[in-house]
Amino acid sequence: MDYIVHDNKNNTNVLIETDNRAKDLSGSIIDELIAARRELGMTQQNIADLVGVPRAAVSRLERKQHSPSIETMLRYANALGKDLKISLVDKKQP
């Protein structure tokens, strides 16, 4: 979902792609979680048991059928013996 916001300082309209960027970010984190799970030789069922959810919920998360909460991704990372770090970075200039 894209949003157009009026920038009063520059008197211009700015396109903000918040929904798409959030999906890209969560998708990248999910890819890393899957890679770590496989590297550790763990199954979706192993993760489900450690997180306390049905295996189908882990499968849906890994198939990116919804955008998981930060809490959900933290719980998954914890089950892998990992921590999740999210940080702010400067935007790339066009």
What topology does this entry show?
Elements: E1 3-7, E2 12-16, H1 18-39, H2 44-51, H3 55-62, H4 70-79
Helix pairs in contact: 2-3
Strand content: 5-15%
The CA-CA distance between the termini, in Å, is 21 Å
Oligomer: single chain
C-alpha Rg, in Å?
17 Å
Q: What's the pLDDT, averaged over the residues?
A: 83
Q: At the first level of CATH, what is the class of the domain at 19-79?
A: Mainly Alpha
Give unreliable regions as ranges: 1-5
Shape designation: elongated
Descriptive account of the structure:
The chain has 94 residues and is mainly alpha-helical. It is 51% helix and 11% strand. The chain has a domain at 19-79: Orthogonal Bundle (434 Repressor (Amino-terminal Domain)). It has helices spanning 18-39, 44-51, 55-62, 70-79; strands at residues 3-7, 12-16. It has a two-stranded antiparallel ribbon.
Index terms:
single chain, 94 residues, mainly alpha, 434 Repressor (Amino-terminal Domain), 2 strands, disordered N terminus
What's this, in brief?
This protein has a domain at 19-79: 434 Repressor (Amino-terminal Domain), CATH 1.10.260.40. The chain is 51% helix and 11% strand.
